[in-house]
Amino acid sequence: MGLRCPEPSATQLAGVLKVEQAETFSTAADLVAARGELLSSDHRHLAPAELRLAWLDLHESWLSAKAAETGITDTSGFAIVGVGGLGRRELLPYSDLDLLLLHDNMPDDVLGQVADQLWYPLWDANIRLDHSVRTVSGALRIANSDIMAALGMLEARHIAGEERLSTELIDGARRQWRSGIRSRISELVGMTYSRWQRCGRIAQRAEPDLKSGRGGLRDVQLLDALAFVQLIDRYGISQPDMPAGSLDSSYLTLLDVRTELHRVSGRERDQLLAQFADEISAALDIGDRFDLARLLSNAGRTISYHAETGLRTAENALQRRGLSALVRRPKRRPLHEGVVEYGREVVLAREAQPEHDPGLVLRVAAASAVNGIPIGAATLKRLADSAPQLPTPWPREALDDLLVVLSAGPTTVETIEALDRTGLWGRLLPEWGPIRDLPPRDIAHKWTVDRHLIETAVHAAPLATRVARPDLLALGALLHDIGKGRGTDHSVLGAELAVSICTRLGLSAEDTEMVSKLVRHHLLLPITATRSDLNDPATIEAVSDALGGDPQLLDVLRTLSEADSNATGPGVWSDWKALLIDDLVRRCRMVMAGEPLPRAEPTPPDYLALAADQQVHVEIRPSDSERIDAVMVAPDEPGLVSKAAAVLALNSLRVHSASVNVHPGGAITEFVVSPLFGPPPAPELLRQQFVGALNGDADVLDALEKRDSDVAGAASVRAGHVEAGVPVTRSTAPPRILWLDTAAPSQLVVEVRATDRTGLLALLARALEQAGADIVWAKVNTFGSTAADVFCVRAPTAPGSARAAIEHHLLAVLGTPADVVRDEPGGE
């Protein structure tokens, strides 16, 4: 292990034990008196490391004296071996004394007599004892069948008696661990994830389990065990300049806090209860309990990061060894431009050049969050070392990738945590520093401030289809408490910070203002709904005026209030609270003016000229940043829109926005797209495929569905490998179908909000066509991971039956139950 206490000095021993001869120090009374003196106020000046050192020497001295008195000598056929904290030289006050009495096949009556002379004085001294009596072969059999025993014996240390026996045990246990690690790694990983789930995280918790929690002391001992068989670089992760933080420094922090916890509570404790926090922080001279919480959160996150990456590194290393590496080499699966999956980790493609690609960090993050696959430690380090800063304002693609991360659901947490531990998140959001590991002042909050913001984004993701601007909902969730930790009104300061952040991210002035208002007023609805008279018109007018009469802002703010409450802690959001807020929102809507109805986008004159000759045209034109405009013109016919969208999807072009307009000369479909990988396809290739689809020579929609089913099948195969703590799918918001008001009685306007996927537009357009609806115009937008597609259609049947048919076919595409909202006012 990288952390070791120095040997105690003779002066320290004499000062603590106050005995002239070691042989007189062997009774239970001697041990009780020495323990009491060491924990008395006379020794309160001892630092945690000094206390552990003195406590270790006290018990080793007593055990040595007792062993000599009992006849456990160099030639006795007995040996006392210390494991656990005693073996690691990290014995804490009130911790168990873990002892193993080894013997060389002694008779039972002799064993009983020696064991009783050793154990009973310890029991009489009220010392918690974890003991066993074994032969060397018997102990090794236990270690071979019990992984916890095997881990303990890796840290075993000779205390007294015949050292030959201790050496045989320690050497044998280590040989067994080396030779058996391949067959035991799955059990070790499963046991670790089970413990993490049972004990929770140390980081960002009010009352963490310092020993067994995720990011606790046991995780460092786990890494020591992996380093012992050379599966991880234990030396490298202990260095002070590690981007993720030094493992040894964080370990020592937790060890010191746990030592003080024992001392101030007067008993063995692993969970740091709030009642002891002030006294411990004072003893360690680190400020108040909030400073202590922040220190522990940072240490726990560092250890957790190294433990998670260490387990993956060990598993991958074992898979790459031996004959299995020759038979089943991991395949590289493309995930994004310059990003692939390899060995169940997100890594950089061979041709990636992070030093020249500022957007690569967010593409890696998006691939990790969407696919539920962790980012490789080497990839994170390479990005931290070489990735340049994003330009200001960010390219649109970078903002889209950030929105994808924020909208991914539970996988968002691990993705952002990996970026934050390696300094990459702080580069993207420099304003994050003051809230990092910041403990909450309100007891209702479950998480630290930074984790609360991420949890709010996680809780907002399933609600994304409730609002017209899910992208601004995600950004509002991420930034609503960004102003905390600076000694002023966090809503006011946060709104100012949101302006600078959103400007840097490349949002328009209007969107920046809306995010700023979300941050400024994120407490407005819950506070007003629960503390004011909703029957008072002045209350409703005050809220409406504060929001500038903006119904879209009102809807996003209502959804943010729900996500914020759910991310705060259990019971903060309730049916009663939801009822009050919904009543407030309803009353505010009544005094707000509606937005303009959706309508077709104007068609540029040059596109009208292309449609006039009744031929098929495909043009690719540069747009902004990495996007391109793909224009597809053809004589109007049923299925044209779906086939055009399918051709783009089959060529791995992601649709960001689109408009469809039908004119006398033909149908004009304008797409803003970006290639998922590599350069865009040539216009000639797209035209050839488009013409083939229109003529019936190629069933592009069938090919698209087959590709989707192949991907889904591969995903289910990957899901068969259960990797605890890492979801194989991400949480998505339920789809939503909204019927909007229209001024034309012969037309229907329907909006579909759903989690975006390649080819979704094509399948939605085909669903409308299968329902007999003729697309008159369409406006398509993708906000991060959420598609919001508006279609104006002309139906051959009565509106009621036409709606039912369209809903039936749309739901078949969406695949899950969807909310259906009828006669929604335009713009809300």
Automatic annotation (TrEMBL):
<feature type="domain" description="ACT">
    <location>
        <begin position="749"/>
        <end position="825"/>
    </location>
</feature>
<keyword id="KW-0548">Nucleotidyltransferase</keyword>
<dbReference type="InterPro" id="IPR043519">
    <property type="entry name" value="NT_sf"/>
</dbReference>
<keyword id="KW-0677">Repeat</keyword>
<dbReference type="InterPro" id="IPR013546">
    <property type="entry name" value="PII_UdlTrfase/GS_AdlTrfase"/>
</dbReference>
<feature type="domain" description="HD">
    <location>
        <begin position="449"/>
        <end position="550"/>
    </location>
</feature>
<dbReference type="Pfam" id="PF08335">
    <property type="entry name" value="GlnD_UR_UTase"/>
</dbReference>
<dbReference type="GO" id="GO:0008081">
    <property type="term" value="F:phosphoric diester hydrolase activity"/>
</dbReference>
<keyword id="KW-0808">Transferase</keyword>
<dbReference type="Pfam" id="PF01966">
    <property type="entry name" value="HD"/>
</dbReference>
<feature type="region of interest" description="Uridylyltransferase">
    <location>
        <begin position="1"/>
        <end position="334"/>
    </location>
</feature>
<keyword id="KW-0511">Multifunctional enzyme</keyword>
<comment type="function">
    <text>Modifies, by uridylylation and deuridylylation, the PII regulatory proteins (GlnB and homologs), in response to the nitrogen status of the cell that GlnD senses through the glutamine level. Under low glutamine levels, catalyzes the conversion of the PII proteins and UTP to PII-UMP and PPi, while under higher glutamine levels, GlnD hydrolyzes PII-UMP to PII and UMP (deuridylylation). Thus, controls uridylylation state and activity of the PII proteins, and plays an important role in the regulation of nitrogen metabolism.</text>
</comment>
<dbReference type="InterPro" id="IPR003607">
    <property type="entry name" value="HD/PDEase_dom"/>
</dbReference>
<dbReference type="InterPro" id="IPR045865">
    <property type="entry name" value="ACT-like_dom_sf"/>
</dbReference>
<dbReference type="InterPro" id="IPR002912">
    <property type="entry name" value="ACT_dom"/>
</dbReference>
<dbReference type="InterPro" id="IPR010043">
    <property type="entry name" value="UTase/UR"/>
</dbReference>
<feature type="domain" description="ACT">
    <location>
        <begin position="629"/>
        <end position="705"/>
    </location>
</feature>
<dbReference type="InterPro" id="IPR006674">
    <property type="entry name" value="HD_domain"/>
</dbReference>
<dbReference type="GO" id="GO:0008773">
    <property type="term" value="F:[protein-PII] uridylyltransferase activity"/>
</dbReference>
<comment type="similarity">
    <text>Belongs to the GlnD family.</text>
</comment>
<protein>
    <recommendedName>
        <fullName>Bifunctional uridylyltransferase/uridylyl-removing enzyme</fullName>
        <ecNumber>2.7.7.59</ecNumber>
        <ecNumber>3.1.4.-</ecNumber>
    </recommendedName>
</protein>
<dbReference type="GO" id="GO:0006808">
    <property type="term" value="P:regulation of nitrogen utilization"/>
</dbReference>
<keyword id="KW-0460">Magnesium</keyword>
<keyword id="KW-0378">Hydrolase</keyword>
